[in-house]
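Fold this sequence, please.
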Amino acid sequence: MDTSESCLDDTMLSTASNSFYTSGTFWAALAVFVTALVGAASVWATLRVSNPRRRLTYSIEDTRLLRPHSLGHDLTVHLDGSVLPDPRILRVELRNLGRRDIASAAFDQGLPLKVAVNVPIMESLGVEAQHTVAQPLPAVVRESEIQIGPGRIGQRSRLTYLFLVDGEPSCTWQHSLIDVKVAEAAELDNEPWAVRVIAFTAATSILALIITLMDIFR
């Protein structure tokens, strides 16, 4: 290929590139794309505000009060004159991660939250409430089962119930909440971060695509 042909090709490529940027069709298409993207984001934000999800997490942990030792004598815990062979503190925590209260009506047929621990529950040690002005849900012990509620759970609130049990608990959780996503704390706490990562990745990909196209036709 001689020099004149090379110059001609460069001129044609430059002309095509310039016509790309000055094309009304390109800018109209880009405007439609941006408008659609902004519209979709606005719809998503509106739905999120008008229909906030109610999300409740729970966690159940126990702590042994006595551990094996080599002091030469036995430590024991007594309750009402009886020795507890394996006393433990059971901690049941509820967190409302949503932006709205979970109303009493969300408890279908007024049924409480139930935690079966499958060991003797010796004593209820009280409840701690954080980030809420609502009264904590009442907790009732029925043999080896804890029943919590029904009642209102304030937005962003955290309720922690403490119990003295004898033995290693094996807990089973049941609930009757309507329109409330319920999950273990570790599972649900990670979900918002996953959503943010996906959204950030999608936005970055779109921006990278636009920049790449501009470089190609520059």
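The longest helix spans residues 24-50. The chain has four helices and eleven strands.
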